[in-house]
Predict the 3D structure of the following.
Amino acid sequence: MNRHIYDRVYLIGVDGAGNFFKNAETPNIDRIFADGAYNHNVLTAYPTISAQCWGSMLHGVSPQAHRFTNGLVGTFPVPENHPYASVFKLARKAFPSAVLASISNWNPINTGIIEQGFDIVFGTGEDDEVCQKVCEVIAENDPKLLFVQLDSVDGAGHRYGYGTKDYLDAITHADALIGKIYDTAKKCGRLDNTLFLVTADHGGSPDGHHGGNTQAELIVSFFASGASVRRGEFGYMEIRDTASVIAFALGIEQPENWSARIPDGLFSDGVSFERPSEVSPDGSRRFTGRENKPTPDGKVLSKYIDTDTMRCYFPFDGDTTDKSGKCKTQTVGKLYFTEGFYSSAATLDDSFIKCEKINMGKNSFTFCCWLKLHETKKDEKWLIFSNNADGCGRGVSFYVLGEMLVTDICLGEQTIHYENSLPANYAGNLFHFICSYCRNDDELCYYYDFTLETDWYSEILIPKELELDGGSVRIGNCSPVTVDDLMLFDHKLSDTEIDNLERYYTEK
């Protein structure tokens, strides 16, 4: 059977719509795809956050491979030599003179997910503005590959709850914009031999959140219309497979390091193949991590370590409560609860957590937590215990600089600065971090996964009478970090205590 090659591919993504299309009034989608294909059970990427999902959709791999996060794509442009090429980069190499366009309400897709320097037409604005710009691009430029992102549905989900009437009304409005785009393309004669696609990046929960692994968050809809598209419901699909669909439709060979595949039953001429194994940039198989489970019944932290010596303890199991009972918290921005070691963790791409005063006083101290990190700017500290919100003054702050994990102990006029290389394969994977400081010996120790990484003696000494003030405590900084089981102890943990803490996580 001859493979059908399309002249154009249009992909419209409705942020946060999940598979709620089927619950909303969508007369335009109904007419556009009356003779097309659909699947209301497509598995999106995890965690169910925009950068991770759009990144998988356009780059053909999982978030563990492409490593995009909201904080990262909102700050850094994606390198032209990113190891997993996007569909735009592939299309530019295949069609040097073709018009390629991305019009997105959420502009970090244009600046931080799609590679720069490939002569792509970019545009941004509110949804109605996006629709108008898309119609102009179609009429004036006839793009070969067109990506559109509408964002107001996700905003309605956060405000009113996903699945609510106001939220479904927002989907109906997005449907009207999709109808305008389709009708413009039809009027301009652009639908001949065009593959027209509509999907979503993720869904959300009734209480207005996403990022987790519930069905309402993980399952999205996918619609397709085109000359070789089979009518009706097609087979199993993951959102990263969108990239494979686009490449196949345009006659572009799929990169070997993509883990996307053509969904069974979508195309009449589609080839069926097993999902390729995901390969990291250095050629080694990526560590997939342990299976996430709730805290086992009967497993209590206080049986393993003296919790009375804690100044705070944040398990982040669906909330930001300090289980030590010593402080209250306030979340600023959108906090995502994603997969942790036990149960959930706090992903702080778009938020930070403010805490009441937690002083370390004149004591030695130990910070412990599970981390999932990506590169951040120096100023984007992910944990601050200080008398000033910016981490200056007196206190302790942590941040990532390149491939280094940095601790600053601020003494006012002086700063004890320590940095150490991050563990191998840290990016996108949880690892356990312990930083302890003994004020009697001025010794700082790092432990990765409960193993001593380094011990270091500062040339700058903390005056014995100086109190390290935690008057301004801030977890996260709207930067790409996931934190789980954050603990602060009022002493340097002994080797026995660290062994016991490890047993808490590993003992069956």
